[in-house]
Amino acid sequence: MKLPVSIAVNGSATSSEVEPRLLLVHYLRDVLGLTGTNVGCDTSQCGSCTVLIDGEAVKSCTVLAVQADGSDITTIEGLAQDGELHPIQQAFWDNHGLQCGFCTPGMILTATEILKKNPRADEHEVRHGLEGNICRCTGYENIVKSIVAAQSAKPAKKRASKKGAA
């Protein structure tokens, strides 16, 4: 038996019929083809599958796709606007906040929530906010440096939508 789900993902409406046991991470990757959301541990320990659900950072391996019905989800693919990196993505680039890159999408989306809750988070608050995300390559120094640096970055200007233009 399949169940219908309607989810806005990165600003686009999606509708599918899914198995009730399908995890959101697999819906994003396998049904929608958004492979920036990574499957790391399958036990909610690593955070590489983190997405924003209605603006909150959530490990998508802990949510069934049917539970996300009616939600607004942002994945790493949805942060950049009009070809411009999101300020946090740019800060990770500028401050070498990644090595292999596997954990980076989850780190960036978690950082988005950290800075939304506290735009002036200090290094200690950033480290505390990242506790649910694991990086196996770095010592976290440049990840934290990137998030702190993103606080002073200005978001890219929104351009007028081309929807409906002939």
Secondary structure elements and pairings:
Blueprint (H helix, E strand, L loop, with lengths): L2 E7 L2 E7 L5 H8 L18 E4 L2 E4 L12 E3 L12 H8 L9 H14 L5 H7 L11 H10 L16
Parallel strand pairs: 1-5
Antiparallel strand pairs: 1-2, 3-4, 3-5
Helix pairs in contact: 2-5
Describe this structure in words.
The protein has 166 residues and is an alpha+beta fold. It has two domains: 3-78, Ubiquitin-like (UB roll) (Roll), CATH 3.10.20.30; 87-150, [2Fe-2S]-binding domain (DNA polymerase, domain 1, Orthogonal Bundle). Helix content is 28%, strand content 15%. The chain contains five helices and five strands; from the N terminus they run E-E-H-E-E-E-H-H-H-H. Helix 2 packs across helix 5. The chain starts with a strand and ends in a 16-residue tail after the last helix. Residues 157-166 have low confidence and may be disordered.
